[in-house]
Amino acid sequence: MQDVWNTGYERLIESRYMDPVDVVWLATARRLGLRVRRNAAIFSATDGQGLLELGPRSTLDPDDSTAQMIFHEICHWIVNGPEAVHQRDWGFALDAELDWREHACLRLQAALGARHGLRTVLAPTSQFRAYYDAIPDDPFGPMPAGAPLERGGDPEREAQVCARARSAAVEAAGAPWGEALDGALKATAALRAALLPFFADYASDVDLDELPSLWFR
Questions:
Q1: What is the phi/psi pair of residue 54, to 5°?
Q2: Average pLDDT score over the chain
Q3: What element of type H or E holds 155?
Q4: CA distance 107 to 147
Q5: Does residue 67 form part of some domain?
Q6: What does each C-alpha distance from 136 to 71, 98, 120 come to in angstroms?
Q7: Which of 26, 111, 165, 174 could cross-link to 104 by cystine, CB 3.0-4.6 Å?
Q8: 3-state secondary structure at position 158
Q9: What are the contacts of 80-88 at 24+ separation with CB within 8 A?
Q10: Residue 201 lies in a domain
């Protein structure tokens, strides 16, 4: 038999493998009028004209994903209002102190994710993770005593945060987000359900990789 590995054979590559969840969320972004591109100079940014830039995959934490990043940005859009898509960085002043709408976004993210069993799978991995993890089972309820409220996180401010997150959860079901976002969350939950039976026999193909799969959480 001819040794095909030593013939200088070159194969024409006509397609690219894509992570299924990436496909879901990149398509969802496009359905909502967002063009996703990678930019090594930033973590995430929008230009107010439909461009959503994300840091390259190589810079992500092991428990981060394209899906989570796009989901988080959509939650920003919902909380900040439909017109925010026409404003750079959803209307945030990035050189200012923490905007209370960041926490409202996190609560909305927790609420929408929880409806599909994805609250942990689609959790943020930024410096706001401590706040996110402290959000109670009722994502619109008061924080437990001693929870990390960060800069300016007093009870009066948290009441404002919760009120906006609650109303944003209602608005998320309407235009322009409702159909696209609901479809993405349902598809992600279905992929997770399809994977779960395999984890009893799963073993990483990377030596010394002891981190459990995020899908199993």
A1: -125, 150
A2: 91
A3: helix 155-171
A4: 14
A5: yes
A6: 20, 21, 13
A7: 165
A8: helix
A9: 82/176, 85/33, 85/34, 85/46, 85/48, 85/50, 86/48, 86/49, 87/48, 88/45, 88/46, 88/47, 88/48
A10: no
The tokens describing 82, both together, are 């439909």
pTM (2 decimals)? 0.91
The pLDDT value recorded for residue 4 is: 56
Beta bridge partners of residue 180, listed in sequence order:
none
Residue 102: other Cβ atoms inside 10 A: 17
Domain membership of residue 190 (yes or no) is: yes
Dist CA 206 CA 171 (whole Å): 43
Q: Is residue 150 classed as helix, strand or coil in its secondary structure?
A: coil
Q: Which domain holds residue 112?
A: 15-194
Pairing mode of beta strands 51-54, 35-38: parallel
- In a domain, residue 88? The reply is yes
Q: What is the pLDDT of residue 127?
A: 86
With contact defined as beta carbons under 8 Å apart, do 28 and 183 qualify? yes
164 HSE (CA, 13 A, CB side): 23
Alpha-carbon dihedral of residues 26, 113, 92, 125, nearest 10 degrees? -80
Q: How many domains does the chain have?
A: 1
CA angle 215, 181, 162 (to 5 degrees): 85
Total residues found in the chain within this entry: 217
Listed as ranges, residues in the chain with pLDDT below 70 are 1-7, 148-153
